[in-house]
Amino acid sequence: MKFKVDSFVIAIVISILLAYFFPQLGASNSPIPINRIASIGISLIFLFYGLKLDNKSITNGLKNWRLHVLVQGSAFIIFPLIVVFFFPFVKDTNYESTWLAFLFMAALPSSVSSSVVLVSMAKGNLTGAIFNASMSGIIGILITPFWIGLFISQTHISYDFTEIYLQLVTEIVVPLTIGLLLRKWLGSIAQKNTKKIDFFDKFIVLLIIYKSFVHSFEEKIFGSFSWWVLLSIFGLVIILFFTMFFLTGYLGKLFKFNRPDQITIQYCGTKKSLIHGTVFSKALFGQSSAIGLILLPLMIYHAFQILIISFHATKEGGVES
């Protein structure tokens, strides 16, 4: 069975290397307004997101409420609570910011496109996947900042609630609302250009990652961490993934969901969106030098979840490759 390395994962690695070796374009004194470009890009991402929401899928999806409760509960309650459990062990230590990066990852919405594609490959409940992945992005606008806000005052990262929520409203909520309102007239055009829109989304994400790591390298944020600590972050991310993957699988069986629903619960309840993560990180931690560290667990998780769930989906769907 052959597996191709995801091209987006490769692009992420290249972006980080460019930030390290060629930081000039993203430096604080750069003539190129990357922050402004990224902000406009974020608004367009959510405008397109609103345009692409499918009324029929949402209407049909509302009927299977037990599935939705478990998927959203896994993504936004169970996953963050697992990370919160370890807060007393890192409180008032040098690892608070690292722990916050894990909480940020745990509180993020599900990845939309990859969740739907992999559920389809595994012959899961596709309608349920479309509904939950779509709704997850909207719910995350409220839930992700809520989780971070509960603990940010106890860490060393500055956090201005007024500025953050104003940015969330102007860059995310307003464009999303406009997209929803224009969906009747422009929705079909957005659907026909899904691949181009996805390419644009990924380009903006890579731009934010580049800028974030330039900032972190400028401030030498990673210099205070040993290789042992960075390897520990990698190991903890993998442990978290398998914990959630097997837990959601167990809950699906415990509550006697059929196999297609179980697949949707496992995939949508454990996936975390790198696109939403980079967008939210800019709003929540945009002025912090630690933003590269904040994104690190998420980027590792993103690559690992694609690898493992792709393998699982291929096995479930009986697809040979």
Structure characterization notes:
With about 325 residues, this protein is an all-alpha fold. It is about 80% helix and about 0% strand. It is built from 14 helices and no strands. α1 (about 5-20) runs parallel beside α10, α2 (about 35-50) runs antiparallel to α10 (about 195-220) and α13 packs antiparallel against α14 (about 290-315). The longest helix has about 30 residues, at about 160-190.
Structure at a glance:
The protein has 321 residues and is an all-alpha fold. It has helices at 7-21, 34-52, 55-61, 65-84, 87-90, 96-106, 112-121, 126-152, 161-192, 194-218, 227-254, 259-270, 274-285, 291-317. Helix 10 (194-218) packs across helix 13 (274-285).
Summarize the helices and strands and which ones pair or pack.
Elements: H1 7-21, H2 34-52, H3 55-61, H4 65-84, H5 87-90, H6 96-106, H7 112-121, H8 126-152, H9 161-192, H10 194-218, H11 227-254, H12 259-270, H13 274-285, H14 291-317
Helix pairs in contact: 1-10, 2-9, 2-10, 3-8, 4-6, 4-8, 4-11, 4-12, 6-14, 7-8, 7-12, 7-14, 8-12, 10-13, 10-14, 11-12, 11-14, 13-14
